[in-house]
Amino acid sequence: MRIGIIGAGALGGTFAALLSQAGHEVEVAARGTVRAAIQARGIRLSGGFGDVIAEVAVAERLTVRPELVLVCTKAQDAEAAIAANRERIDGAPVVVVQNGLEGVDTASRLLPRSRCFGLLSLIAADHSEPGVVHVTATAESRLGRGDGSAGPEAVRLAALLSDAVPVLAIDDFRGAQWTKLVVNMVNAVPAIVGSTLGDVVADSGLLAVLTASMRECVRIGIARGVRFVALNGLDDASLRDFASLPLAEATAVPSALVSRMSWEQNRGSTQQSLRRGQPTEIDYLNGAVVREASIAALAAPVNAALTALVHEVEAAGRPLPRARVLDVLALV
Ligand SMILES: NC(=O)C1=CN([C@@H]2O[C@H](COP(=O)(O)OP(=O)(O)OC[C@H]3O[C@@H](n4cnc5c(N)ncnc54)[C@H](OP(=O)(O)O)[C@@H]3O)[C@@H](O)[C@H]2O)C=CC1
Ligand SMILES: CC(C)(CO)C(=O)C(=O)O
């Protein structure tokens, strides 16, 4: 099948290399140093899915009309990336590989002739240098759209993408996006202090802040009428219990998540952007919690503060002292 992939970083690079290896005709849209590296040396994938060097077609914008499109940019780049490729892709099925709550809605608005789906990646991957990707976790990703049943097209797309990585079509994708948003509360604190998730959960103060952001996210989700779909060992019942626990007891939940997923060495995709000197998608992660809170006429002070701290790191170009993160506990 002809597959167009927009954005060839950590996840786009993983999908492009593995779909190409599986025999699909892959073209990637990439820019700057990433495009130049892929043109010169292909995509070099290592880690959980094995070592692959994939020579794939690459251009600033897709040049061939694909039969399936994967949008693999960070959330803040998705609108411009889709708009730049709109003529080639409108009408084809689109899978938006993205954290946060907005990816499928953005694509559907910009591509009225396409059926758009979301993919929640449970893969973790590092885009250490242009064209070079290392996979550190390989769990089964989830694909769907909206809040209804998965439907036959989602099942077909999940089977097709499973040529590359394990993907399951699911009902109530919206509920799963919320559970993933809760999970992504692990991104901000290590990004602010510049450490691994293992170091954060080993530090009782930083763990308390991470826990407070996660608990606040769950509380806002509950206020928004969300039913959390099971993901990463978290489900609706356990998250509702978590939301009402005192902070000191609640810390066991993110701590167990990190060890269950073997994420001790993981720094998260937000910190990867910072290390490359690029803007982060924090406004679509912790920032989404703040927006959802305001729709429910509530406040999300912990997530607002962490969003602001990540923006401070973007501006400073270096991590902040852990004391700045501990200050957030005064808001709990
Ligand atoms: N990495 C991970 O382990 C995980 C990531 N995710 C989520 O998946 C999504 C993708 O993340 P990830 O792969 O890490 O992101 P990366 O930043 O590694 O890759 C995104 C790529 O998109 C490119 N891009 C942006 N705009 C355009 C454009 N207009 N045309 C072509 N290329 C463009 C960027 O290029 P440039 O450098 O030029 O900006 C970059 O190479 C995010 O929502 C993330 O949160 C989810 C789970 C795990
Ligand atoms: C869950 C996690 C942390 C996996 O790496 C992720 O989604 C990210 O890095 O954005």
Tally of separate domains: 2
Q: Are any ligands bound, and if so which?
A: NADPH dihydro-nicotinamide-adenine-dinucleotide phosphate, ketopantoate
Tell me the Rg in angstroms: 19 Å
Please name the CATH architecture of the largest domain: 3-Layer(aba) Sandwich
Cα-to-Cα separation, first versus last residue: 51 Å
Query: Superfamily at the CATH H level of the largest domain?
Result: NAD(P)-binding Rossmann-like Domain
At the fold tier of CATH, the topology name of the largest domain is: Rossmann fold
Indicate the low-confidence ranges by residue numbers.
none
Write the layout of secondary structure elements.
Elements: E1 2-6, H1 10-21, E2 25-29, H2 32-41, E3 43-47, E4 52-54, E5 57-59, E6 68-71, H3 75-89, E7 94-97, H4 103-110, E8 116-120, E9 123-129, E10 132-138, E11 141-144, H5 151-161, E12 167-169, H6 173-183, H7 188-193, H8 197-201, H9 204-223, H10 236-244, H11 247-250, H12 252-260, H13 268-275, H14 286-295, H15 301-316, H16 322-326
Parallel strand pairs: 1-2, 1-6, 2-5, 3-10, 6-7, 7-8, 11-12
Antiparallel strand pairs: 3-4, 8-11, 9-10
Helix pairs in contact: 3-4, 6-9, 9-10, 9-14, 14-15
Bound molecules: NADPH dihydro-nicotinamide-adenine-dinucleotide phosphate and ketopantoate.
